[in-house]
Structures are given as structure tokens and as C-alpha cells.
Amino acid sequence: MKFSNSVVLVTGANRGYGRAIAREFLNRLDEKSLLLLHSRSGAVPWLQEANDSEKSRCKIEILKGDLSESIKWKELFDAKVSDSSFENAFLISNAGTCGNIEKPLLESGHMLDEMASFWTSNVAQFIPLASVFKKKFSKSKIHIINITSLISKVNVPKLSLYSASRRARNCLLEVIASEDASLRCLNWAPGPMETEMFYYMKETMIKTNTDVEMWQNMQPVKTDVSAKVFVDILAKDEYKSGEYIDLFDVWKQEEQ
Ligand SMILES: NC(=O)c1ccc[n+]([C@@H]2O[C@H](COP(=O)([O-])OP(=O)(O)OC[C@H]3O[C@@H](n4cnc5c(N)ncnc54)[C@H](OP(=O)(O)O)[C@@H]3O)[C@@H](O)[C@H]2O)c1
């Protein structure tokens, strides 16, 4: 399914799952659409490698910003988006980190500065971003998506910060959905995927003798496979706003 006359912003679009989501949208957007690729450094290496026909499918702009710092989102949008009258506007809040997962929380020696940076980039930054996005694209049907994780629903040793931050993100989006019925809000858990974050977690867990069997047996999915299922859900637009959906639940339902 294609998307017409839409603007899509993907945070952390330079690599990992963000890259796969951006590429999936690139294949489905039309010439009236705009793809906004957020990247911390401003570089999006895969875009250089994409061929000309891919790159000419829609307009593409890059938004540079470190999510752990104060970002002037309004100025960024105003500089890159001249006409904001799109039919649909999708904000895909994907970027993030898992934090320091080497030791149990109270043995990790986390300092307040480090904590502040983690919570700013993983949770708090979403609020000014979503707020400015909503104003900027007020003429559009707005879809706000939080890329979350199954780990937001369970307590896993060493992954306390990761789990708590994803749970907080889920909560924020649920509340936003309840505050404004005109918004389409989705918490999407994409499954374990072959990315740097996954391999860092797996190696660290095995190295520190934590849930070794589970991590050794875990079968990550390819980012583009998960991205396709995700973008199909957005295209169908049938989910309940504020809902949490996991990749494996979608696959289970399809089997029934
Ligand atoms: N991989 C999995 O198994 C899995 C499973 C469930 C959910 N998720 C979720 O999926 C999302 C993407 O994860 P991933 O696996 O693709 O991770 P990844 O490969 O480590 O990529 C993380 C992305 O976030 C960006 N990012 C991190 N901190 C940033 C900051 N301060 N400012 C700007 N950008 C920043 C990174 O940019 P740089 O390149 O500049 O660092 C990168 O683009 C995360 O929210 C994660 O929780 C992943």
C-alpha cells in the first residue's frame, strides 16, 4: 500500500531500524510527499548509496540533532518544510539507546549527568518534538508512533533503564492519545532485530552471565521484515489509538 501526499519524520534514520523504516517509506511515498530523516550527525550514509530513481520518489530532507541536547525543532522544521499542508503527517520516534547494561542498577555507579543525558534523549526529547510536530502539521491527520520494545512490559536484570525508559515512552503516548482523540497514536514493538543495539545487548548479557540461554537462543528478525509489517499497519490504519502492538502478536493473528 502506498502513501500519498504525506510527510514522514523518522528519528535515528541513519542506521538500524530507523534506516529500515525510512527505506520502507521511501518505496511507498509519492511525489507530493516529504521524507524527513533525522540523524544525530546530519549524515545518512545509506542515502548516498540509494539509486537516483529511489531518491526521486519523494522530496527528502535531513534534520540534524543530538537528542540528548536542546534542539530548536520549530526552527529546524521551518527551515526544511515550506508547505506543511499534507494529508497525513507521521512522526516515528525511533532513535534511542539502551544505556549502560554492564552491571545491576545500584552497582553501576551511574552519575546524575549521565542519567540526565539518557532520560533526555530516550524519553523527554519526544515531548517538545511531538508538540512542535503537532503544531507544524496541524492541517494534516497526525500519526505519532513510539518504537518501543517487549522489554517495556517485563523486568529484566541489567536492562532496568532500558525497560523503564520504554515503559515511560509507552505511558506518554497512551496519555497523549487519551488527551486528543484526533491523533492516531501507536506503541509498536518491532521484535528483536539484527542491529548494533541487539548485538551489544546480547554480547553484554552473555559476557556478564545473565539469561545466557535466552540470549543465545533468541532469533533476531531482519529490520526490513519488521519495518514492512509496521508500515503495513500504518497503511491499514485500523489500530486503536494508544494501543501497544508487538510484531509477534501480528504474526500469531495472521496464522489463525
Ligand atoms: N534492535 C532490537 O532488537 C530492538 C528491539 C525492540 C525495540 N528496539 C527499538 O528500536 C529503536 C531503534 O533501535 P536500533 O536497534 O535500530 O538501535 P541502533 O542500531 O543502536 O540505532 C539507534 C539509532 O538511534 C540514534 N540515536 C541514539 N542516541 C541518539 C541521540 N542522542 N541523538 C540522536 N540520535 C540518537 C542512533 O544515532 P547514531 O548513529 O548517531 O548513534 C541510531 O540512529 C530503539 O528505540 C530501540 O529501543 C530495538
UniProtKB/TrEMBL annotation:
SUPFAM superfamilies noted in UniProt: NAD(P)-binding Rossmann-fold domains
Name assigned to this protein: Sepiapterin reductase
Any Pfam family hit: adh_short
Species this chain originates from: Oikopleura dioica (Tunicate)
Keyword NADP: yes
Cited InterPro entries: Biopterin_syn/organic_redct, NAD(P)-bd_dom_sf, SDR_fam
GO BP terms: tetrahydrobiopterin biosynthetic process
Cell compartments where the protein resides: Cytoplasm
Gene3D superfamilies, A to Z: NAD(P)-binding Rossmann-like Domain
Keywords associated with the record: Cytoplasm, NADP, Oxidoreductase
An example Gene Ontology molecular-function term: sepiapterin reductase (NADP+) activity
GO CC, any one term: cytoplasm
Source superkingdom: Eukaryota
